[in-house]
Design a protein that fits this description.
The chain is mostly helical and about 80 residues long. The protein has helices spanning about 10-20, 25-30, 35-45, 50-60, 65-70, and strands spanning about 5-10, 50.
């Protein structure tokens, strides 16, 4: 079964971008066409994937780039015995 394309987002990055833009959650949700509750779930990490149309609308409302909304890669932690 084919799974639809989704975008993984970093909730902390969304919050930071929103605050730097001087927007409340209510303002950003309205600008991006999201519910305030969904935006809250994204920011607190309960949700970390978005459909392409919602992701594009959020990115446009924040006037930001993919790199700024994507989760940061974590460094590999060496395991004992390797």
């Amino acid at each position: 079964m084919h799974q639809p394309l989704t975008y993984t987002v970093d909730g902390d990055a969304i919050r930071t971008e929103r605050m730097q833009a001087g927007m409340t959650r209510k303002q950003l949700a309205a600008a991006a066409g999201l519910s305030r509750r969904y935006l809250c779930h994204l920011e607190n990490g309960t949700r970390d994937r978005m459909s392409p149309p919602l992701y594009i609308a959020l990115r446009a409302a924040l006037d930001t780039t993919d790199e700024r909304l994507s989760p940061r890669p974590t460094e590999a932690v060496p395991q004992e015995g390797t």
